[in-house]
């Protein structure tokens, strides 16, 4: 059936370095090969005991601007761009050693991660992945946004984001939709950058946060367009929201087969959807069903 493939890890170690958006601290991210069934595990290599945190929804906290993970002292901030790169390239097993709590902001996208991981190469492992195949539609709502999860006729993972901040926003209404493959992610999604309005950027600086971040480190958008910058895509903001959606939903810990359409959603809503998907996958695992996990019940979260 569509959606079943072997698990993947990377062929060699690779590194990405930069500064955290919020902390301003230098940080190094080292991605390492991992055995079958490991999943994605984040490691605080700067701490004495090198504590670990599985990159799953069980340990996730979504807030307005980023997704965080915590397992005791193993705390990580803004993991979504790394997670999107791993999920987008279909890397199932990877140990990621990180030298600070906050991951690097880089240029606000997943591009540096994708370039490093592609350079490291991919290894096909001798175990089949376990896809979660969506059989029934469901809508999950939160704070004026919603995500529709529905079956995919062709057995693919399809992601769509509909961005609409209203008629008075500097960021115009836009959409993006893609059938997820490693090639599509690398070419159409990975380079889409984090964005804020000029007003939001000013408020952040006044609050003493991200004072070192320049207009080249992310998109700052005024009524006249990007400030001291240019769009990489006409709908770059919707593409970046799709990137966030892919990264956040990957915390469900399974390969996804279905359609995932977000309308005005953010990290908190994405986290709710990932938790629902993880719950369903665990339910089927507990039941020891021979077929891949499938289906969603009609429940709505307010």
What secondary-structure arrangement, pairings included, does this model have?
Blueprint: E1 6-10, E2 14-19, E3 26-33, E4 40-44, E5 52-54, E6 60-63, E7 66-71, E8 74-76, H1 80-88, E9 94-98, H2 111-120, E10 122-128, E11 131-133, E12 138-142, E13 145-150, E14 157-163, E15 174-179, H3 182-189, E16 195-197, H4 198-206, E17 219-222, E18 225-226, H5 236-249, E19 255-263, H6 267-286
Parallel strand pairs: 4-9, 11-19, 14-19, 16-17
Antiparallel strand pairs: 1-10, 2-3, 3-9, 4-5, 6-7, 7-8, 12-13, 13-19, 14-15, 17-18
- Globular, elongated, flat, extended or rod-shaped: what is the shape? globular
Oligomer: single chain
**Uncertain spans:** 297-302
Give the CA-CA distance, first to last residue.
34 Å
Radius of gyration: 18 Å
Q: The biggest beta sheet, please?
A: 6 strands, mixed
How would you summarize this macromolecular structure in one to three sentences?
This protein is α+β, with helices and mostly antiparallel strands. The chain has helices spanning 80-88, 111-120, 182-189, 198-206, 236-249, 267-286, and strands at 6-10, 14-19, 26-33, 40-44, 52-54, 60-63, 66-71, 74-76, 94-98, 122-128, 131-133, 138-142, 145-150, 157-163, 174-179, 195-197, 219-222, 225-226, 255-263.
